[in-house]
Amino acid sequence: MKKDAAALATLLATTGVLHFAVPRPFDSIVPRSLPGSPRRWTYLSGAAELAVAAAIAHPRTRKMGALAAAGLFAAVFPANVKMAVDWRHASPARRAIAFGRLPLQVPLVLWARRVAR
Description:
Helices cover 79% and strands 0% of the residues. By secondary structure, it is mainly alpha-helical. It has one domain (3-116). The protein is globular. The two termini are 14 Å apart.
């Protein structure tokens, strides 16, 4: 597997596992406008990350998986916005984390698109 694809698959697999192992932080950033419980969305997004990681890891499904990763990175952006809004009065360190995640989505999408090529 190419290093770029392996690193992206590893990132997604690690984050996917964290959704199940430590779900509470993810629950807290699920937008309230989504129907159902935040935990359900945490588990669904974790499962999606694991599935996309597996697709990227296999050469036959790498392109589809990487394009799905780009879509997933865009789809979770509202959660990052919610975190930034919720943490706007938090400590400077927490604000830096929350606001730093917002522009991070762009290079993640570009990385996934590069792996898809």
